[in-house]
Amino acid sequence: MSTQLLTYLFVGGTFLLYIGIAIWSKASSTNDFYVAGKGVHPVANGMATAADWMSAASFLSMAGLIAFMGRDGSVYLMGWTGGYVLLALLLAPYLRKFGQYTVPDFIGARYYSNLARLVAVICLIVISFTYIAGQMRGVGIVFSRFLEVEINTGVIIGMGIVFFYAVLGGMKGITYTQVAQYCVLIFAYLVPAIFISILMTNNPNPIFGFGDTLVGSSEYLLDKLDRVSTDLGFGAYTEFQRSKIDIFCITAALMAGTAGLPHVIVRFFTVPKISDARKSAGYALLFIAILYLTAPAVASFARLNLIDSIQDKTYQETPDWFKNWESIGLIAWQDKNLDGKITYASGDAFIPQKPQYVSREEANEPRPLTNKPNSNSSNEVYIDRDIVVLANPEIAGLPGWVIALIAAGGLAAALSTAAGLLLVISAAISHDLMKKILRPKITEKEELFFARLAAAVAIVIAGLFGIYPPAFVAQVVALAFGLAAATIFPVLVLGIFTKSVSKEGAIAGMLSGLIFTLGYILWFKFISPELNSASFWLMGISPEGIGILGAGINFLIAILISNISKKPPTEITQLVESLREPL
Amino acid sequence: MKKNKSYWGINVTVISVLLVIWFLISLGFGIIFSDAMDSYRLGGFKLGFWFAQQGSIIGFVIIIFLYAGIMNRVDKKFSKKDK
Question: φ and ψ at A85, to 5 degrees?
Answer without folding.
Answer: -65, -45
